[in-house]
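User: Sequence recovery, please. Input:
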């Protein structure tokens, strides 16, 4: 009997097509069962590679010299579609399991080779009919939630993504296991109940503390404990949509983790996903979780290189090693960025989508929820609503400045109310108030420098990196720091540690920074200056002043200033909304003022700007009659609109890591470490550095800085490359 080969590993062992299909189907079934669709997952897995039964594919895999391209994914999609129209979602997942989810196209008019799903079904395929001797496809069904509701087209497209994720991850994992001879270095983490025990052991000492340095410290610990206890108690509640509104200094990170662990334990949920707005603070949050739960249980995942296994790529062990450098979020605690989270949900590529099924049956904490980009607000809200409504997840909008999204969520989650976790927080608001916010009007650059001169400790936050560098160059240099994203993360982390130490020792500490220090960076200055911005930014900046409440609030001043000649079209509406609220509320930090700010801000933008790229319109209506426009959406959905490129700085450990990268030996762990040495730059800056001969290309991964005079220890990667061109944010 002829043997049909799916893969050959480095030891020369073969995996049959039948074994690969069966193994992939079992895994896909297990994954999809998390949202009640195990049979659909199994069907996808069983049919995804039946094209490998063709004589042409068998020739290609047996003979390295055989270079003819072989389409082996379309066969399964075609068979599924011919079995039943209802199998179209499964067929779309199968068709794109290597090349990515494609636009649907039109049943009658799409043409072969046009890149659409219906066009793909018309491709000429090699004969693969022998699959029927070894494979018997079972029945399956599309879930009922895809068949009704106001947004059923969107809901169905979301289901296709989740099913696609189950298939892709199952395919990769089955292949990985075979390619490694059955030795797979995955798992090894502890279950949620054990993590809850660790958390309780960690917090018990300070929850039961009875000896304090003074009355202020006793009150602070008492209030934080009160918030944590309420969060833990609320963790027993039903799955759904929640807010957690905790003022700065209230222990928000620990309290939200407590809720998430208790909730996940109660409902036997698989993992906790902590979504953070900025890469600049992700390592800080991950470090806290590592300390509490153990590093082996926490995955820190943000940017990196994501490899795709293309359909026509040779099926070698080396090729799969590159594919497996990406992540599938198979740990119990994930710390990631909003960009990584939402762009994965709207991507069409296997490398980004393979993790999606692991979001189901999870607790998702959106830290600093007010930072969700407003021009993608509708599509972000819709995605979170789908996860809550149909995939067993609980979502928590966690911030001191709630963005007033009740009405938005009600549109996509009818009948599921938004609930506040800490219902008594209103009684504690005043006790956590640490500062007085004042407006000092318009200042020239010279006026600003003069205001700072003679002060020993302060934080000044401005809106652009260029402005930060300009001010930094003119201030007193003892204990001076310039914190922007032009510093690589490991360098920023080191500087922030130095800043904390100087502040605690009462030494001069003068910091000029961009907004990267506002959310989640634990710094405590006696005085803060904030260039005019949105109200949420101003309040977040105030959270870096008198953070521990050791000084009187009357002496802890946050000064908001308008910088003469400085304009930003990106912040025009948020600044206008800030000024509007400032005129109407004496206390700008009051919850009603914050809610009013966000509502007015969105009114200024207009409804059309809440879905600026028409993501929702394209998802539900298609383009030119095109159904399920996955590729089109992926091209449009970028939370950070400008394309950036990573430049790796070969300093410290980064030097060795960069050499490994350039040698082509970087895997998952190396890329994760390299993220601490990356500075992401915009096209103009990249072009100037390239033309000046400062960079060495590292394949798809980006570039390595070779001219080290372009990295300054004080201000990071320099922008003034010969021509002086550069884009600052």
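Assistant: Recovered sequence (729 residues):
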């Amino acid at each position: 009997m002829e043997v049909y080969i799916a893969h050959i590993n480095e030891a020369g062992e073969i995996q049959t097509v039948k074994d690969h299909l069966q193994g992939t189907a079992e895994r896909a079934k297990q994954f999809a069962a998390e949202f009640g669709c195990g049979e659909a997952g199994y069907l996808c897995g069983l049919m995804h590679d039946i094209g490998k039964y063709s004589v042409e594919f068998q020739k290609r895999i047996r003979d390295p010299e055989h270079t003819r391209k072989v389409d082996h994914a379309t066969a399964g999609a075609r068979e599924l579609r011919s079995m039943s129209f209802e199998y179209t979602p499964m067929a779309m997942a199968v068709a794109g399991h290597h090349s990515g989810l494609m636009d649907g196209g039109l049943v009658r008019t799409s043409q072969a080779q046009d890149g659409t799903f219906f066009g793909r079904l018309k491709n000429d395929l090699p004969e693969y009919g022998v699959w029927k001797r070894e494979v018997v496809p079972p029945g399956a069904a599309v879930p009922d939630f895809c068949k009704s509701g106001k947004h059923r087209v969107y809901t169905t497209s979301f289901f296709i993504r989740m099913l696609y994720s189950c298939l892709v991850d199952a395919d990769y994992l089955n292949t990985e296991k075979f390619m490694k001879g059955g030795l797979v270095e995955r798992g090894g983490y502890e279950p949620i109940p054990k993590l809850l025990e660790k958390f309780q052991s960690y917090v018990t000492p300070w929850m039961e503390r009875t000896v304090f340095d003074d009355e202020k410290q006793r009150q602070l610990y008492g209030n934080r404990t009160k918030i944590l206890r309420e969060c833990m108690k609320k963790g027993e509640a039903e799955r759904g949509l929640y807010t957690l509104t905790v003022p700065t200094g209230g222990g928000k990170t620990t309290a939200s983790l407590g809720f998430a662990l208790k909730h996940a334990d109660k409902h036997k949920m698989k993992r906790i996903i902590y979504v953070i707005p900025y890469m600049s603070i992700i390592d800080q949050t991950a470090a806290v979780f590592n300390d509490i739960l153990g590093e082996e249980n926490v995955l820190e995942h943000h940017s990196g290189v994501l490899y795709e296994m293309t359909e026509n790529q040779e099926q070698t062990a080396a090729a799969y090693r590159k594919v497996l450098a990406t992540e599938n979020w198979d740990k119990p605690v994930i710390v990631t960025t909003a960009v990584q989270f939402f762009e994965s949900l709207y991507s069409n590529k296997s490398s980004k989508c393979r993790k999606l099924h692991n979001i189901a049956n999870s607790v998702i904490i959106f830290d600093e929820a007010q930072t969700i980009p407003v021009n993608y607000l509708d599509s972000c809200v819709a995605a979170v609503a789908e996860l809550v409504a149909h995939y067993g997840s609980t979502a928590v909008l966690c911030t001191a400045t709630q963005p007033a999204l009740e009405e938005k969520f009600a549109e996509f989650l009818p009948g599921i109310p938004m609930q506040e976790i800490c219902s008594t927080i209103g009684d504690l608001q005043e006790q956590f108030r640490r500062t007085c916010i004042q407006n000092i009007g318009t200042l020239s650059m010279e006026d600003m420098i003069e205001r700072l001169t003679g002060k020993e400790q302060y934080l000044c936050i401005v809106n652009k990196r260029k402005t930060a560098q300009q001010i930094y160059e003119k201030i007193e240099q003892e204990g001076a720091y310039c914190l922007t994203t032009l510093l690589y993360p490991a360098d920023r982390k080191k500087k922030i540690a130095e800043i904390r130490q100087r502040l605690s020792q009462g030494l001069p500490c003068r910091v000029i920074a961009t907004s990267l220090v506002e959310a989640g960076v634990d710094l405590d200055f006696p005085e803060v200056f904030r260039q005019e911005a949105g109200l949420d930014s101003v309040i977040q900046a105030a959270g870096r002043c008198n953070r521990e409440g050791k000084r009187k609030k009357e002496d802890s001043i946050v000064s908001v200033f308008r910088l003469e000649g400085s304009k930003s079209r990106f912040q025009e509406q948020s600044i206008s909304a800030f000024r509007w609220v400032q005129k109407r509320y004496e206390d700008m930090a009051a919850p009603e003022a914050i809610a009013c700010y966000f509502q007015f801000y969105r009114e200024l933008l207009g409804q059309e700007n809440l879905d600026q790229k028409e993501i929702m319109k394209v998802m539900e209506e298609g383009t030119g009659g095109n159904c399920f426009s996955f590729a089109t959406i992926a091209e449009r959905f970028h939370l950070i609109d400008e394309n950036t490129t990573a430049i790796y700085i070969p300093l410290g450990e980064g030097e060795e890591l960069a050499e490994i990268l350039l040698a082509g030996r970087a895997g998952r762990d190396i890329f994760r470490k390299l993220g601490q040495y990356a500075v992401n730059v915009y096209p103009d800056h990249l072009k100037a550095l390239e033309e000046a001969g400062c960079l060495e290309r590292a394949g798809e991964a980006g570039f390595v800085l070779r001219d080290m005079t372009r990295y300054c220890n004080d201000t990071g990667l320099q922008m003034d490359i010969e021509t002086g061109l550069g884009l600052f944010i």
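The chain has 29 helices and 21 strands.
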